[in-house]
Amino acid sequence: QVQLVQSGAEVKMPGASVTISCKASGYTFTDHDINWVRQAAGQGLEWMGWMNPDSGDTGYAQKFRGRLSITGDTSTRTAYMELRSLTSDDSAVYYCTRGWDPWGQGTQVTVSS
Amino acid sequence: QSALTQPPSTSGTPGQRVTISCSGSSSNIGNNFVHWFQQLPGTAPTLVITLNNQRPSGVPDRFSGSASGTSASLVISGLRSEDEATYYCASWDDSLSARVFGGGTQLTVL
After folding, report:
1. Nearest CA-CA distance, residue A18 and chain B, Å
2. What is the C-alpha separation between B108 and B83, in angstroms, rounded?
3. Which among A107, A85, A112, A109 has a CA at the least distance from the CA of A95?
4. For the sheet containing B18-23, what is the strand order?
5. How far is CA B55 from CA A10, B18, B109, in A?
6. Which of A36, B11, B48, B108 has a Cα-to-Cα distance from A112 of 20 to 30 A?
7. What residues of chain B lie within 8 A of the CB of A101, using their CB?
8. Nearest CB to A47: which of B44, B56, B98?
9. Per-residue pLDDT tens digits of chain A, which is 113 residues long
10. Residue B74: closest CA among A7, B83, B3, A53
11. Which residue from B50, B56, B101 is facing A44, i.e. has the nearest CB?
């Protein structure tokens, strides 16, 4: 079955960067976009950006441009999301999704000094 | 402030029919498909309606969706206790070149 498995929880200092991986299985990795969405505690869903694993094309939400990078490795069927210059406002659960469905299990990122 | 507007909460009793609305604009719902997600506490969202009104495999036919103009609706018929969750609508926004989500509607089954 189609599955996305994300890397584990991260704790980062303010100003640091975080990279989360998202390993896909059960489908042809290059046939579907990968999107990243985050959710702060008790809050709604916030779309961050997308990547086409075949072409490498990306698109980012305005608020993240300049500090967000989404990449992919077709040989390992893995997508990566790097967010730089972290602040406490970036503490959230981060999800990858294949198109609109399914979603990875989520990765908790905590930014704290 | 979300690009798509949903009521923050709604409720119903078992067996009842509930409707959750999602209001947008011509740059999102008015020109693109709407998708609905169910999120149970502590879990990742799951897709319950896609392409305005299509149920993914495994989603009960109690769930239905529709869209008209710049608004969309999710209807849950024959409400069950396991339907208690937060529901989000989503679409693509041509002006923002971004996916947009509603703020979420917390459904309580009384």
Report:
1. 20
2. 8
3. A107
4. B18-23, B71-76, B63-68
5. 35, 17, 22
6. A36
7. 46-47, 50, 56
8. B98
9. 999 999 999 999 999 999 999 999 999 999 999 999 999 999 999 999 999 999 999 999 999 999 999 999 999 999 999 999 999 999 999 999 999 999 999 999 999 99
10. B83
11. B101
Is residue B37 within 8 Å of residue B100, measured between CB atoms? no
Interchain contact, A95 vs B44, CB within 8 Å: yes
All residues of chain B having their beta carbon less than 8 Å from the beta carbon of residue A44 are: 2, 88, 101-104
Residue B105 tokens, joined: 């509607």
Q: Which of A59, A62, A106 sits opposite B44 (nearest CB)?
A: A106
Contact A95, A38 (CB under 8 A): yes
Single-letter residue type at B19: T
User: Measured between alpha carbons, how far is A5 from A36 in angstroms, rounded to an integer?
Assistant: 13
Interface probe with A: pick from B2, B99, B100, B105, most Cβ of A within 10 Å: B99
- Closest C-alpha among A24, A20, A22 to residue A1: A24
